[in-house]
Amino acid sequence: MLRADSINVQRGDTRVLEQVSLELVPGQVLGVLGPNGAGKSTLLAALCGELAVSAGSVKLDQRELSDWQGVERAQRLAVLPQSSTLNFAFKVEEVVGMGRLPHATGRERDQQIIGQALAAADAQHLLGRSYLALSGGERQRVHLARVLAQLWPGGIGQTLLLDEPTSMLDPLHQHVTLQATRRFAEQGAAVMVILHDLNLAARYCDRLLLLERGVPRALGKPEEVLQAELLQSVFGLEVLVHKHPERGHPLIIAR
Question: Does domain 2-254 have CATH number 3.60.15.10?
Answer without folding.
Answer: no
